[in-house]
Amino acid sequence: MMNRTTFFDHHAADWDADRPPEEDARLDRVITLTDVHLGYAVLDVGTGTGVLVPHLVRAVGPSGRIVAIDLSPEMLAAARAKGFPSSVTFLEADVHDLPLPDAQFDRVICNAALPHFEDRLRSMREMVRVLRAGGLLVISHPIGREAVNRRHREAGGPVEGDRVPAPETMMALLQEAGLTEMQVVDEPEFYLSRGRKRQPEDGCGRVSSPIDLPRS
Ligand SMILES: C[S@@+](CC[C@H](N)C(=O)[O-])C[C@H]1O[C@@H](n2cnc3c(N)ncnc32)[C@H](O)[C@@H]1O
């Protein structure tokens, strides 16, 4: 029987062809609300074919670093084939058990992926763990909550029951994961939630040291 990883492996080849034309403008809005700056270190969780990566590359510039993780080898192969600059590292990894040290990233962003995670709270705690104090975790769905839920119902199979959390559920999850300054934007065609990691007294540091990464 197909599980989520084989489902995404199966869809990797045609993933980009199915992207709606307005998605890039919405991803730019995601980047703006993620408040990404030159030199930042950013983790892209559930990167898929890397649709967010060109936006992140522009935002962090050559002095920034992007680590993009996914569980699906085929999705990662499609992303790697795009030939991104050496500031981008792709890793095959499970968000529930990230092979990354604590407090490495200025921003952690999870675009269009959270509903597929088996244990949302555990995955969010892992994403918070690798975030620097004062950094932002962003969970986004640029086509909006209802559209995502409808797509999953129609797709059937292992993703059929995967749902974007309602705003009140997301606020509770962000808080339980250890974040503060939580916000949820829940518009008909755009969803984004974010929260800041506590203990910001020394601010959200710009990248000044290399990220300690396992080999990809
Ligand atoms: C709907 S796709 C979105 C991909 C991409 N972020 C985008 O916006 O097009 C969700 C991705 O999450 C990945 N994924 C699902 N469960 C995961 C997990 N436990 N850890 C890491 N990635 C996971 C899938 O393999 C898939 O590539």
State which percent range the strand residues make up: 15-25%
- Sketch the major β-sheet: 7 strands, mixed
Relative helix content = 25-40%
What is the overall number of helices? 7
Flag low-confidence runs: 202-209
How many angstroms does the end-to-end distance come to?
28 Å
Strand order of the largest sheet: 3-2-1-4-5-7-6
Mean pLDDT: 93
CATH topology: Rossmann fold
State the fourth-level CATH superfamily: Vaccinia Virus protein VP39
Tell me, briefly, the overall form.
globular
* Assigned CATH class: Alpha Beta
- What is the number of strand segments? 7
H/E element sequence: HHEHEHEEHEHHEE
Radius of gyration based on Cα positions: 16 Å
Whole-number count of domains: 1
In this entry the ligands are: S-adenosylmethionine
Structural class: alpha/beta
Overall CATH architecture? 3-Layer(aba) Sandwich
Write the layout of secondary structure elements.
Layout: H1 4-11, H2 23-34, E1 41-45, H3 53-60, E2 65-70, H4 73-80, E3 88-92, E4 105-111, H5 120-129, E5 131-141, H6 145-155, H7 167-176, E6 179-187, E7 190-197
